[in-house]
């Protein structure tokens, strides 16, 4: 950990330039920098979409459901409701929650009418 901290504290530029600076500092070979981006696998012959995360074999009926699972389960992505603080899976879940379930939002709207 101390080695990592000593590398990070050497950087004096703006935050948006850190990644490029780090690649140069660590002397990452150019061939690695041009690796194609990851594209999740297509539907299986049975029509299901399988999670590609190593060791995870969950299957979903839609690509969106598989992608939501990956973002939440493996990347830790989530959306927090600004009205009540509930944590939801994605932006669509947040919008649905705010329309139908969020008591804090519904209470505030009631006060406005």
How many angstroms does the end-to-end distance come to?
A: 55 Å
Strand order of the largest sheet: 1-2
SSE series? HHHEEHEEHH
Name the poorly predicted regions: none
- What form results from the Cα inertia axes? flat
Keywords: Metal-binding, Zinc, Zinc-finger
Domain C2H2-type: 79-106
GO molecular function: zinc ion binding
InterPro entries: Znf_C2H2_type (IPR013087)
Task: Characterise this structure.
- The chain has 113 residues and is mainly α.
- Among the domains are: 43-77; 79-112.
- 45% of the residues lie in helices and 7% in strands.
- The strands form two sheets. Strands 1-2 form a two-stranded antiparallel sheet. A two-stranded antiparallel sheet has the order 3-4.
- It is flat and about 50 Å long.
- The protein starts with a helix and ends with a helix.
- The relative contact order is 0.07.
- The model has no long low-confidence stretch (mean pLDDT 80).
Task: List key phrases describing it.
113 residues; mainly alpha; two-stranded antiparallel ribbon; 6 helices; flat; zinc; Znf_C2H2_type; zinc ion binding
What does this entry show, briefly?
The protein is mainly alpha-helical. It has helices at residues 2-8, 18-25, 30-33, 63-74, 91-100, 103-112; strands at residues 49-50, 59-60, 79-80, 87-88.
Fold blueprint:
Elements: H1 2-8, H2 18-25, H3 30-33, E1 49-50, E2 59-60, H4 63-74, E3 79-80, E4 87-88, H5 91-100, H6 103-112
Antiparallel strand pairs: 1-2, 3-4
